[in-house]
Amino acid sequence: MDFVELIAEVSEPSPPKEAALELLQRSREPALALQLFAAASRIRDESIGKTLWWSAGISSMMPCHVEPLCTYCTYFTAKSFPLDELVASVKAIDELGIRHLHLSGGTDFAGYDNEMSDAVHAIREVSKIDIEINLGPSFTRNGVRRLKQLGVSSITSSLETFNPQVFAKAKPGDSLEKRKALIETCQDEGMPVRSMILVGLGESEADRIDHLYWLMQFPHLYHLRFSRFMPYAGTDWENHPRCSPWEVARLVAVARLLMPHVDLGLAAGNSADDIPLWYAAGGGNQLLGASVSMRQGKSRKTQPGETLIPVTDRVALVSRMEHIEQFVRGLGRQIAAAVPHSY
Ligand code: SF4
């Protein structure tokens, strides 16, 4: 089939999975990828608009209790983020003009219902910021209900990879089924859902398409983020290949055709340097402008484009807003402080 016709077929509602896979595979050829990216960008502009917007992240919120820990991970923590330092961090994010925040990490199958309800209560004392929560499959149905009643904007359940063998190798103490079940629970409870794909763990292109098709069944899925595998020294995966940005960009473009109204973001393993290709491939529209972690104290060395803002004796906020704004201006686009109404 002609490539333009294939793009048109996959852009129709409920396209055959085989067509989406063929589109992804044939887009390895750069000249064809450019056609796909143009279609995906047009769909993005028409579906969710041309204005990008800020979010911020606070990570390492809770101890990770999966046993054994994921074999690629270096960012788990053994301690909870103290509430007073959490509140101070949220105030610092507010002062940057960011109106949207996600709290993330780690996982406990026994549940973090109470801990995260307490965290949301504490934040609500000082801020109206929109809150998203990502602590893996750490919430019961009642926990989802409580967080919804507290006005939490969404819960994230990242499947990371849809291939059960790859999942078992990368996350031997974790549960793909529990992660899927949390998305199903959120859908039942009318709680908006966010999810993530970790590209480059060794999954096939067919696995990636299966992953997208499984997620497409959930009308409450409103944000899907794409991590790009980074091998870290000292992990079992230190010799596994770094994922190419080309793999992520092509998958984002196919995802845009399949789920035009879903925000498609960049997650771990990507940097500001990935923004132009991501955006050209139909990604959008949320940007991570600032982040806080107990693991990035005041002594953390900044990278080019980062500003370190001390929050407490132990915690610092890292802002990348100016740097990212410059990149986005170069794309002829603007970034708004406001969160889109659809959120
Ligand atoms: S569940 Fe998340 S934080 Fe815990 S070990 Fe795995 S990747 Fe790391």
TrEMBL record:
Domain of life the protein comes from: Bacteria
Pathway: Cofactor biosynthesis; biotin biosynthesis; biotin from 7,8-diaminononanoate: step 2/2
EC annotation from Swiss-Prot or TrEMBL: 2.8.1.6
Pfam families reported in the protein's UniProt record: BATS, Radical_SAM
Record SMART domains: Elp3
Catalysis performed (reactions): (4R,5S)-dethiobiotin + (sulfur carrier)-SH + 2 reduced [2Fe-2S]-[ferredoxin] + 2 S-adenosyl-L-methionine = (sulfur carrier)-H + biotin + 2 5'-deoxyadenosine + 2 L-methionine + 2 oxidized [2Fe-2S]-[ferredoxin]
Cofactor(s) the record lists: [4Fe-4S] cluster; [2Fe-2S] cluster
The Radical SAM core domain, residue ranges: 50-267
Keywords: 2Fe-2S, 4Fe-4S, Biotin biosynthesis, Iron, Iron-sulfur, Metal-binding, S-adenosyl-L-methionine
Full protein name: biotin synthase
Organism encoding this protein: Afipia carboxydohydrogena
